[in-house]
Each structure stands twice: as C-alpha cells, then as structure tokens.
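re the bet — no i am not wrong, look at it urself. input seq straight from the record:
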Amino acid sequence: MLRIYLTGEVQAERDGNLLRESALGGPQGRFVLAYLVSERKKAVTQAELAEALWPESLPASWPLALSAIISRLRARLATLGLVRSHIIANAFGCYQFSAPSDTWVDLEAAFAGVDAAEGFVTAGNPQAAYGPSLIATTILRRPFLAGDSSPWAEDRRAALADALVRAIDCRVEALAANDEVELALTHAKEAVRMEPYRESGYRRLMRMQVKNGDRGEAVRTYAECKRLLAAELGVAPSGETASLYREIAEP
C-alpha cells in the first residue's frame, strides 16, 4: 500500500521505503505534491497548478519551471517502486496524480472518519463514533503545509479547521457515552475556543458540565456565550440555547 501524509511532514511510504519531505525538492515540490494528491480525483491544468503555486506573479518561463518540478517529483516517487511516467500523468496540458487503487491518504482518512462519526452520532450510537473521531482529530490537529501562505493552502486550512471542529464535536459525544466525562469536557472547551460564536459548541459544553455534576459552571458558560454574542454580534442567544439554560438553571 502507498501511504501519503499531507499533514505534519509531507511524506510518502511504500513497502517500508519512506520518501521524506526533504527529498521533494523544497517548498515548491512539497506544494505541488500536496496539491496534486488533494485534487487527485480530477485532472489539473498546468495553468491552474501554476497559478496556485505562484499566486503573486507567474515566472516568465513558468511552463519549464513547473515541468522541472514535476520531473523531480516523478523521480523521487519512482524510488518507492512507482512507475515514473504513470504516477503523475500528463496529457492535454493537464496533470493528474494517478496512484495505485489501494493508496491511503491521511486527509482522506480524516474526512471519512468525520463523516462516519457524524453518521453514528446522528443515528443515536455515539459510542461507535469513538474510533472514527479519534482518527479524524489526530490527523486534523497536525499542521498543513506549515509556512506556506498561498491562498490555496489557506483555503485548505480553513476547510480542515472546520472538519476538526466537527470531529471534536463527535469526539465529545463518544467520550461522554463512554463515561470519559473529564476528557469530553476538555474537548468541548477546545471546540468553543476554536469557534467562539458557534452556539452549538456552548450547548454541548453546558451539557457536558451538567453531566459532570457542575450546573453552576454550565450557567457561567451560558452567561459568557450571552455576553460574547451581545458584545461582538449584537444578538441574543437563540431560543434553543436559552431553553437549555432555563432547563439547567431551573431544574
């Protein structure tokens, strides 16, 4: 199996052979590999890839520069026993990462984990979300293309941050169902820190605090939610959040 890691250090591994980020040809090689693997379900035009790689201004000889980056990547990937001419296909002015059918990509595994965990929680079986949510949160907490400030990388980070919050939400429910309430509380607080204007995060945290036997802390969480929404957005908590507060404050 070919395993590709796009979070943390960008790497590829196959049959015990590891291709490290340092062998990819610098930041440009790392970026191109991450882009092509992320978009591997479609062919990417050379112009699209070049504009993502050089968002400020295309080099005068960008086709040659891009071709050199691709050639270097093919050569490095060939050290894993992959067919050089096939792993990054080139036709009609397009590139496409063409990996073996059993290829595993960490971000694809993370998104699959989020989807599976949410499905279990929605179906009323949060304990089954334990494993998928753990896989997703573990992967999504790693940095993506650290140091790269390109618009494409920033957009991907935003999508990954959103997926991480979804994974953490499921993790909270799974941990609570497994009676790991203290750890569930830690995760619920993390989700609120990541998205401080999202009321569902406060509601989940309040429920965990009540489950932990601390209604007073849940009341204070509601007060903080109410204060923040009023100060920053000029709105009051939703009816759902207010109803949960009343349920907690007036048992």
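see?? The first helix runs from residue 26 to 38. told u. also The mean pLDDT is 96. so pay up
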